[in-house]
Write a structure and sequence with these properties.
Blueprint lengths: L4 H12 L9 H8 L1 H21 L2 H22 L3 H11 L4 H10 L1
Helix pairs in contact: 1-4, 3-4
Length: about 110
């Protein structure tokens, strides 16, 4: 599978790990550590993506991007955000100039 459906399926797998045994699942271990640790991991993976993009090549960027997506999905599951909410927000922005969209956000 090579489209965004894989993210929806991964999200479902991640959400199913809530309450699982942390000794048996890395995802369950993240949930057990809580929102702050999960958010920290998202930040770490974001930084690793930047480093890969600037100095480590595309293969490393692909790998780090996958890690970032995974940890972001864990954060969404922890906070109750559903992927369809993100997809709807992105769809809402489609066709809008990025500059106009950003200006609209800073006005509120």
């Amino acid at each position: 599978m090579t489209n965004a459906t894989v993210l929806d399926q991964l999200y479902q797998t991640i959400a199913a790990r809530k309450g699982a045994d942390p000794s048996q699942s890395y995802t369950a271990k993240l949930f057990a550590k809580g929102r702050n640790k999960i958010a920290q991991k998202v930040g770490e993976e974001g930084v690793e993506c930047v480093i890969a993009a600037l100095s480590e090549g595309n293969d490393k960027l692909v790998s780090e991007s996958a890690d970032l997506f995974y940890h972001l999905l864990v954060l969404w599951a922890e906070t109750g955000v559903k992927p369809e909410e993100i997809w709807a927000e992105l769809a809402k922005r489609e066709g809008i100039s990025g500059l106009d969209e950003k200006a609209a956000r800073t006005e509120t």
